[in-house]
Amino acid sequence: MSPDRTIEPREVPLGGLRGLKVHRTLPSKEIPLIGAWCFVDHFGPTEHRMEVLPHPHIGLQTVTWPIEGRIRHRDSLGSNVVLEPGELNLMTSGDGVSHSEFTEGPPGEMHGVQLWVALPDATRRGPAAFEHHPDLPRIEGEGWAGVVLVGSFAGETSKATVHTPLVGVELRLQPGRHEFDLDPDFEHGILAVDGAVRVGGRAVPHRSLEYVAPGRARLALEVDRPTIVMLLGGEPFGEEIVMWWNFIGRSHEEIVEAREAWEALAPRYGHVEGHGDQVIPAPPMPHVRLRPRVRRA
Predict the structure, then answer these.
(1) pLDDT digit string (tens) for 6-59?
(2) Could you tell me which Gene3D superfamilies the record lists for this protein (predicted)?
(3) 242 in Cβ contact with 231 (< 8 Å)
(4) Edge-to-edge strands of the sheet including 71-75?
(5) What is the dihedral of CA 65, 114, 93, 275, to 10 degrees?
(6) Residues annotated as binding site?
(7) Segments making up each domain of the chain, as ranges
(8) pTM, entire model
(9) In the CATH hierarchy, which top-level class contains the domain 5-234?
């Protein structure tokens, strides 16, 4: 299993070349997943609006967590929800779904994270679903407070649906050293959301993600000022995945099929109301065969 290491972010436009800039740490070349978490985008703080037209997904769950700003989510299931800071949206794509996300309201600061979870083979071809969780478990200790997005942490369990053993927590830390119990069967990632953090004594720069290998039952986090971090973890995902654009499959052929279905506006993905016929077209397939993501570290 990979030793602990720091994954530095890369800047990517969300929803097109002129889209909202996000800082992406997963997937990385060395570590494609942490548990079933396979995609970590951190956006803001910024006044750039989120304007992401309908686009498709297969084989995954999307997890949206705003820290500042409001986001309107629409999907092909008929959902039309305004997501507020401190609330969670979780959408399960199953074999096909489409959705859009737009900043809601007047201009203002946007800040948050968007995450993907790879679905296991047993459920990845099931029906699509959407969950909105306005009341998540709150936890606190001396000098820190948190919210359990998914899974269980510090004696509290989220009602958000997961398909593999996972944990996702926002932690707000006051200056000092804080120790937390971990599930030693999980691998973990600590995202430095709004400032640098020391993870087990190791300095992790702002926006970077620290990978923590399985076997750790307790972890110390240290900060010099009030700081938000995201703790993500799960049992190592035992299935190989092929990940391209907005799709997670198991083979090159499956991705090609999913892309062609989207370009044909196949019923598989449904229709998102409120945007007319506007959608994000799929990019061209690469000129090489897609291969499974492999851990290289």
Answers:
(1) 999 999 987 655 667 899 999 999 999 999 999 999 999 999 999 999 999 999
(2) Jelly Rolls
(3) no
(4) 51-57, 97-103, 71-75, 80-83
(5) 90
(6) 55, 57, 99, 101
(7) 5-234
(8) 0.95
(9) mainly beta
